[in-house]
TrEMBL record:
The keyword Translocase does not apply. It is found in: Nucleus, Nucleolus. This is DNA-directed RNA polymerase subunit. Signal peptide: none annotated. The gene is polr1f. GO terms for biological process: DNA-templated transcription initiation; transcription elongation by RNA polymerase I. It comes from the Eukaryota. DNA-dependent RNA polymerase which catalyzes the transcription of DNA into RNA using the four ribonucleoside triphosphates as substrates. GO terms for cellular component: RNA polymerase I complex. Residues 54-109 form the RNA polymerase Rpb7-like N-terminal domain. The lineage of its organism: Eukaryota, Metazoa, Chordata, Craniata, Vertebrata. Its main location: nucleus. Residues 1-20, 216-320 are annotated as: Disordered. Residues 124-276 form the RPA43 OB domain.
Length: 320
């Protein structure tokens, strides 16, 4: 016998992912008589409560079970178009046998009798409105189930584009109101309903198709927010750097001006000494060549000093 480890290995692969549920259309269910009567007052039901008399031929099997046989015969004709009722019977009740006796015709084994019953009949007409549940979506039509029993096909309007029809917002399971455009029945008596959207619904879809698409707000990540903040913070840093550079230049300008003043004062002292010497030589009575040269040099120095003092004053005014 195999061990438990062989049957349940530890290195088993991961479990297969569960498939997403797909919407399944609701199956066709014949309602009971009480449920059908409750739908009579619903909007756009097109249901009518009608008492009807008809002929029934029962097989010999139901000779002693007449009510059961009658019910099975009538149930087999539900959801099929009836010419005598001019509609489709949906449910029945209150069965009554007309006459005290049944008839057997010639050598036939069937038992013939007349009955009366109350029927809920589905009688839609062209131009009337119906309300169904969407059970199928297509490129050119939408399938609906009316009262959970009758299939209807709602065609795409010609004025709508394929994109507008696709983006109409219809989903499986949604309620849809439409107008009856055509009615037909096949050989088996199954009713075929063709519908069209109401004018108000078509106008809504056209306006939605013409309206501009809303712009989705851009959601910034944490990194994007940080980058945005950094870009904003760069500007004040540049201004701060410029202010610091201007302050440094101003400080350097003050230092230069202070040095210029000290140099000018030293030159003035030297000039005073030279003038004293020149004046002393002039007072002795004669001017030598050396003294004349010294006086010219002193005059030149005075001119340059005056120019330098003017430049220093101009710099101070500009900084102020």
């Amino acid at each position: 016998m195999a061990s438990l480890q062989e049957k349940c290995p530890d290195n088993a692969g991961p479990a297969a992912p569960t498939p997403t549920p797909v919407p399944v259309p609701a199956p066709c269910v014949i309602p009971a008589f009480a449920e059908a009567c409750a739908l009579l007052d619903a909007p756009y039901s097109c249901l009518v409560l009608d008492g009807h008399r008809r002929h029934v031929a029962l097989p010999p099997v139901y000779l002693r079970k007449k009510k059961r046989g009658i019910r099975e015969e009538l149930s087999a004709e539900l959801l099929k178009y009836s010419d005598s009722m001019k509609g489709v019977p949906l449910a029945f009740d209150d069965i009554k046998v007309v006459g005290p006796h049944a008839d057997i015709l010639d050598d036939q084994g069937y038992v013939h009798m007349n009955i009366e019953a109350t029927f809920v009949v589905f009688k839609p007409k062209r131009g009337q409105k119906l309300k169904g549940v969407v059970n199928k979506l297509g490129q050119t039509h939408v399938g609906c189930l009316v009262h959970g029993c009758f299939n209807a096909s709602v065609l795409k309007p010609g004025s709508l584009s394929v994109e507008a029809w696709r983006d109409s917002g219809l989903k499986v399971g949604d309620d849809l109101e439409f107008e009856v455009a055509n009615l037909d029945a096949d050989a088996a008596g199954v009713l075929l309903i063709r519908g069209r959207l109401t004018k108000s619904r078509i106008e809504e879809l056209l306006s939605a198709a013409e309206a501009p698409e809303p712009v989705e707000p851009q959601i910034e990540t944490v990194e994007g927010v940080k980058k945005h903040k950094k870009k904003k913070d760069k500007r004040p840093e540049k201004h701060e750097r410029q202010d610091e550079e201007e302050e440094e230049l101003a400080d350097s300008g003050l230092e230069v001006s202070q040095m210029d003043e000290s140099v000018v004062q030293e030159k003035k002292k030297r000039k005073k000494e030279k003038r004293r010497k020149v004046e002393g030589s002039d007072s002795s009575g004669y001017l030598s060549e050396k003294s004349s040269r010294k006086r010219k040099e002193v005059e030149r120095d005075d001119v340059t000093d005056n120019a330098e003092t003017l430049n220093v004053k101009k710099k101070k005014k500009k900084k102020c």
